[in-house]
Amino acid sequence: MKLISTTVFLFLFWSFASVAQPAFSPEVRSERDLQWMKDSLHITPAQAEKLNHINLNFERNMDKANDPPNNRLKEKKQKQLMRKKDADIKVILNNERLYQTYYRREKEKRRIQAIKYTGPHQPL
Questions:
Q1: Most buried residue, 14, 20, 82, 97, by most Cβ within 10 Å?
Q2: Are the C-beta atoms of 79 and 110 separated by less than 8 Å?
Q3: CB-count exposure of residue 42 (10 Å: 0-12, 13-18, 19+)
Q4: Which residues contact 59 (CB under 8 A, 6 or more apart)?
Q5: pLDDT exceeds cutoff 90 at 46
């Protein structure tokens, strides 16, 4: 009897633990974005350093923006952060073709995210 109850307890504990997986940290999300930029946009090391700083600040601020209980306020703050990130990146990616490649990816990423996940910003 004790074996059965222990087994049931472990099964239930494992089930709840697997559901409550933490979100990716801002550092991980930022690094993934930067790696995509290095691979796809062939940015210089100087650009990579600046973009890493922008991405990391953006991801940290997005996590903070998810805190307000008012959903409308949260969405407004997130859109504001996205516009600022896009503007900052446009300055660094001085080639219009590079920026358009980046922006197409961001639009698609945001579209997919809006459909399948409404919590903290997650990378593709």
A1: 82
A2: no
A3: exposed
A4: 26, 27, 29, 30, 121
A5: yes
Dihedral of CA 99/82/57/21: which sign?
Answer: negative
pTM of the model: 0.70
pLDDT in tens, 75-85: 888 889 999 99
* 99-116 as b/e: b if 16+ CB within 10 A: beebeebeeebeeeeeee
Neighbouring C-beta atoms of residue 28, cutoff 10 Å: 13
The one-character DSSP state at 122 is -
| CB atoms near residue 90 (< 10 Å) | 15
